[in-house]
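HOLO CASE FILE
Compound: adenosine-5'-triphosphate
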Amino acid sequence: MNTLEAKQIFKAYKNEHDEEEIKVLNGITLTVQKGESIAIMGPSGSGKTTLLNILSGMDQPTSGEVIIGEQAISNLKADASAEFRRKQLGFVFQDFNLLESLTVKENIMLPMILEKKSNLYMEARVDELASLFDIKAILNKYPYHISGGQQQRTAVSRALVNNPQILFADEPTGNLDSKSSAVIMEYFDHIVTKLHTTILLVTHDVFAASYCEKVYFINDGTIHSFISKNGGSKEAFLNVIMENLAQLGRV
Ligand SMILES: Nc1ncnc2c1ncn2[C@@H]1O[C@H](COP(=O)(O)OP(=O)(O)OP(=O)(O)O)[C@@H](O)[C@H]1O
Ligand SMILES: [Mg+2]
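Model generated. C-alpha cells follow.
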C-alpha cells in the first residue's frame, strides 16, 4: 500500500524582478510504501529540502500532486494543511527546533496538548517514548541543559507522539557528532523495524543513509538514480551509496 505518492512534481521560483524563473524541481515522481525508510541525497542546492517540504505539505508545488494515505495534500488550504500535518505527520529538523522555554517533557507533550488528549494519556505516552529514547532522566530539564543527541531524541519523541503516518526528517544528524548520529540512526532503525513507522529522510550523511531501505539521488531537481538495499548489509549499501554519489560528482 502506498503511504505517499508524488506525481510529476515541478517547482519554480520567480526571481526578484519576475524576469526569469528558477526551476528547482523538474518532474519528480516517486512512491513511498508503508513501513519503508527512504533517504534522499544529492548535491547542495539540488532541491532536496524543497522536495521534502512539498512531499510533507509544508510547501506547494508549481504543478503536480502529492497524496498521503487517501488525502491529496498539494492543494489543501493553509489551515487544513496545517491540521493534516499536525495530526498525520511528524517532523525532525537539523537544528532540533525545540521550544527553549519548555522542558523536555513539555516539548514532547505539545502536539498532544494541541490535539486535546487527556492528562492520563499524555503522561503514559511521554513515559513510553521517554523510555524508548532513553531520556526519562532529563524530562524536567530545558533544551539548553542537555546535549545535542538528547535534544534530537527529544525532537524525535515529539515527532512520533501522535503516531504519524510518515516521519519527515531534514538532515537529522547534520548537527550531531558521529556517535550521536549513530545513536539516532539506531533509533530510526528500531522505529522502522519494530514500530513500522515510515521515514523519509534528507541527508548528506552516507552513514545515516545506509540505514535506510532505499535511496533516491536528486540532481538539478530530477531523480538521477534510485537504489534499494534488498536485504543486503548496511556496510555493502554504504559502498553502493558512495559509488552513486561519486557519479553525481559533488555532494
Ligand atoms: N524561497 C525560495 N525562493 C527562491 N529560490 C529558492 C527558494 N527556496 C529554495 N530556492 C532555491 O532552490 C534550490 C534548491 O534549494 P534546496 O534548499 O531545496 O536545496 P537542498 O538540496 O536542500 O540543498 P542543501 O543540501 O544545501 O540543504 C536552490 O538553488 C535554492 O536557492
Ligand atoms: Mg536542504
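CASE NOTES: Strands lie at 2-14, 21-33, 37-41, 63-68, 71-72, 89-93, 166-170, 198-202, 214-219, 222-228. The domain at 2-94+167-248 is CATH 3.40.50.300 (Rossmann fold).
CLOSED: yes
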